[in-house]
Amino acid sequence: MEEIHANLLDRLRQAEAKEQGRLGEVAPIEASPAPEQKLAAMCNPLPGTPPSTRACPISAVSARASTASSETRMRWVSPEHYNKGMTVFLCSKCGTAITPELAELAAIPDVFDDERDRDKKTRRAPSTVPRGHYVIDPEPWGPPYVMQHDQDDPKPAQSRGPLVCREEGFVISAGSRQTVLLHPDDAAGLQPLPNWENSNGCCGPTGDEGLNRACPCGAPVATLAADCFGPCELHLDPVRTYALSQ
Q1: Which strand (E) or helix (H) includes residue 16?
Q2: Among 53, 59, 121, 125, which one is least packed by beta carbons within 10 Å?
Q3: With 70 as the cut, is the pLDDT of residue 148 above it?
Q4: Using CA atoms, how far apart are residues 215 and 136, in angstroms rounded to an integer?
């Protein structure tokens, strides 16, 4: 677990280096062994090995580990404290649980796009995912964005949401895949970044500027989209958070 933790921190530093253009720091990190391989070995012992009690991240967001709190350590060795088939998502930096136990959905629900569905005061649409559930989004989400090839017939910048037009033209997301999509109220402890960074919008954050919600420890871990012209949903970053399930 210590090796996995160190590897995860390397991946976080790699992401930050890419964001800040420090490409010279990226190659040595990318050359390090993938934590997915280590966790796969832990979760799939050789034939004949006696089964042991372990909590293993789900495959879609596997290999996210961190320094854990005393409560989290207890859960690693005692997964019976979780309901079977339920998953909790934790901050990769501090190990704090940022969601309650959630059940996985088989597919992303249809987005509410009828204007009459929106809240009359906040103008928010109903959340894409119902309370108590999560789903893995296989499509790219958030920055970086690239120019769309067909500027005459552009697509929405994300799989759900409006068109995004920048000075150079219509763009489409080339961001992270496998983000964890859930109801914003299921991560109520997350906070806006200082000075509401990346939270611009009309009636709420558009969600197309980057991570805009942080764990109580201060680490940016999620993106909230909750403006009056798009979906209402929270995306947990697949590297900055990890799953603990049974």
Answers
A1: helix 2-19
A2: 121
A3: yes
A4: 20
The per-residue pLDDT for 126 is: 92
In angstroms, the CA 208 to CA 226 distance is: 11
Question: Which pLDDT band, with edges at 50, 70 and 90, does 1 fall under?
Answer: low
Q: How open is the CA angle 97-103-109, to the nearest 5 degrees?
A: 115
Q: How far apart are CA 214 and CA 216, in angstroms?
A: 6
**Which band of pLDDT confidence, cut at 50, 70 and 90, is reported for residue 124?**
confident
Percentages helix, strand, coil for the chain (3-state, rounded to 5) are 25, 20, 55
- The CA-based diameter of the chain, rounded to the nearest angstrom, is 61
| Cα gap 137→180, rounded to integer Å | 6
Q: Reduced to 3 states, what is the DSSP secondary structure of residue 49? A: coil
Per the CB < 8 A criterion, the answer to whether 215 and 98 are in contact is yes
Tell which phi-psi region holds residue 173, choosing left (phi > 0), alpha (psi between -120 and 50) or beta. beta
